[in-house]
Amino acid sequence: MKIALFGGSFDPPHNGHDAIVKKALKELDIDKFIIIPTYISPFKNSFGADEKKRFEWVSIIWKDLQKVEISDYELTQKRPVPSIESVEFFEKKYQCSKIYLLIGADHLKTLSSWHRYEDLCKKVEFVVAKRGDIKIPSEFKILDVNVDISSSFIRERLYIKAVDEYIKDDVFKSYSKDKNAKN
Predict the structure, then answer these.
(1) The pTM is what?
(2) Looking at residues 71-87, what average pLDDT do you find?
(3) How are beta strands 125-129 and 68-70 bridged, if at all?
């Protein structure tokens, strides 16, 4: 089985994430596309919306797409999960012949410092989604989407124009509460 893994905080999921999902489904020769919301990223120490809410949003947006599986694997671990652990879990679960690991170009600068990076390189083919003017080295497969939005921008400014219609009101309510609590 050939799979693609797309992990992230999805705090909140936005149009950039959606473009990546849809472009990957169209361009990659895969049997299954697995979206993996993190409990908390190994590179962050907090999140805006809790894991249940983020899983709900991701499910609402993508669960009905053909070949897509929304996985709670990292959420159930209740800790930061390095990518290699998720890769090994799904490799074993699906007896994979090919694994693509999707990342945003903004992760390239720290990629070599990821937990067990060398092992990760042996197990996956990285697919890098364009972001801004970040140069992507030629050894990576490029996913030509370039939606210039980030979850942090949405949270900080309550910019919900870049959020899926089905979750827009809930996203606004969730982060408005946070902003009101901090003020």
Answers:
(1) 0.92
(2) 96
(3) unpaired
